[in-house]
Write a structure and sequence with these properties.
With 250 residues, the chain is α+β, with helices and mostly antiparallel strands. Helices cover 31% and strands 29% of the residues. Strands 1, 2, 3, 4, 5, 6, 7, 8 and 9 form a 9-stranded antiparallel sheet that branches. Strand 8 and strand 9 form a beta hairpin.
């Protein structure tokens, strides 16, 4: 099949076995073909170029972020949750949710363990993408760019501002490393909790391999959903020092 032709030879057998197991399942999957959500942004039904409050994508992101932050009846708690996608030298993309910790007129910052899978991938290939999705207002923002490591003093300052439990949890884990079981992590946590009780919270210092990344955008896409699927897609793409605005077909 066309799918098998695109898969490396060593993995075709696994794909065929998975397909057979899927077809052989006795319990039918959830019927998702007819799921339809009605999109409606009552404040701004359509995203029109002439009504944009600004043609600076950083300022427009700030406007959208402040708007969703002002919503009092959100169905989720972390509006700064963002899907981060990376690709290492093996060319296999991976995505995960991280928490945005700052955004400025130069980019978007988050913190992680540099030895994690995403840390290794960003070391091998600094190109990355972020996706913010806010279903309450039927909007999403895609950002693509290149990451740089934040200065270590910024990582230290943020680390020290975190709740003690978060610091202990982060320091208990060598992110993305294989561990034997949950108890292994709980034991590390207990050791650090005891250390904090004996020597004070300052003893839970930032791990050397823990720090921040700053994504510097070269591409923004502001998306607003429409129930007829003629979604609005407004793109800003950097050309030297100028942001070019264009509309994409949905």
């Amino acid at each position: 099949t066309a799918i098998e032709e695109a898969v490396p030879n060593g993995e075709k057998r696994d794909c065929r076995q998975l397909a057979r197991r899927t077809l052989a399942m006795d319990t039918p999957s959830v019927d998702i073909q007819n799921i339809r959500a009605k999109y409606n942004n009552s404040q701004e039904p359509y995203l029109l170029e002439e009504n944009l409050p600004t043609t600076d994508p950083f300022s427009l992101f700030d406007t959208w972020f402040r708007d969703v932050a002002s919503q009092s009846d959100l169905t989720f708690e972390e509006i700064n949750a963002v899907s981060l996608s990376t690709v290492g030298k093996d060319l296999r993309p991976s995505s995960r949710m991280v928490l945005l910790k700052a955004y400025t007129p130069t980019g978007f910052s988050f913190f992680t363990n540099y030895t994690s899978r995403k840390g290794h991938q960003l070391e091998e290939n600094p190109n990355a993408a972020m996706l913010f999705y806010w279903p309450k207002v039927n909007r999403q923002v895609r950002v693509e760019g290149v990451v740089e490591k934040l200065p270590d003093e910024m990582a230290v300052a943020y680390w020290n501002s975190r709740p003690l439990a978060s610091r202990i949890g982060s320091k208990s884990s060598l992110q993305s490393e294989v561990v034997p079981n949950r108890q292994f992590l709980e034991s590390k946590k207990a050791e650090l909790t005891d250390l904090a009780e004996r020597e004070g919270t300052h003893a839970i210092t930032k791990p050397t391999a823990w720090g921040g990344f700053h994504l510097i955008p070269r591409y923004f896409e502001f998306w607003q959903g429409q129930s007829d699927r003629l979604h609005d897609r407004i793109v800003f793409e950097r050309d030297m020092d100028i942001w070019l605005l264009k509309r994409l077909s949905p």
